[in-house]
């Protein structure tokens, strides 16, 4: 910049020449920055490889099964306790099919009267519901 100022000192072109040199410098810096950004890549990590949709669907399905199991267990606990049966343990095993259907595989119970509790559960879920004694 100093060289351009000394050559054009006292002339009408000085301001135009300084502007031209500043623009050339700005364009050069911009091109260098663009080339650096263009060649920049994030390293591959295990997490980035697992970002496919199947990974997220699996997480969603597991969380849905867990929440559904807890909710069904809470409802069954309330129904059993309404019959005057003390519930120490109730766990509902839930499976989700490929089509999104929710199946209750079985209910594991620990109550003061497992036979009566099983009858309450079968009234709610159907006679084919598998009820297992969790006390054993």
The gist of it:
By secondary structure, this protein is of the alpha+beta class.
Structural features:
136 residues; alpha+beta; GMP Synthetase, Chain A, domain 3; 2 domains; three-stranded mixed sheet; 5 helices; 57% helix; rod-shaped
Q: For the residues shown, what is the average pLDDT?
A: 81
Query: How would you sum up the major sheet?
Result: 3 strands, mixed
Topology, number of strands: 3
The CATH topology annotation of the largest domain reads as GMP Synthetase, Chain A, domain 3
Percent helix: 55-70%
* Secondary structural class: alpha+beta
SSE run = HHHHEEHE
Order of strands across the main sheet: 1-2-3
Strand content: 15-25%
Q: How many alpha or pi helices?
A: 5
- Give me the CATH architecture of the largest domain, please: 2-Layer Sandwich
Number of domains: 2
Structural shape: rod-shaped
Question: Which CATH top level class of the largest domain fits?
Answer: Alpha Beta
Rg calc:
36 Å
The residue ranges in which pLDDT falls below 50 over 5 or more consecutive positions are: none
Gap between N and C termini = 90 Å
Descriptive account of the structure:
The protein is of the alpha+beta class and 136 residues long. It folds into two domains: 2-39; 46-133, GMP Synthetase, Chain A, domain 3 (2-Layer Sandwich). 57% of the residues lie in helices and 18% in strands. A three-stranded mixed β-sheet has the order 1-2-3. Strand 1 and strand 2 (102-111) form a beta hairpin.
Question: What is the secondary structure topology, with strand pairs?
Answer:
Blueprint: H1 2-7, H2 14-39, H3 46-49, H4 53-82, E1 87-96, E2 102-111, H5 114-125, E3 130-133
Parallel strand pairs: 2-3
Antiparallel strand pairs: 1-2
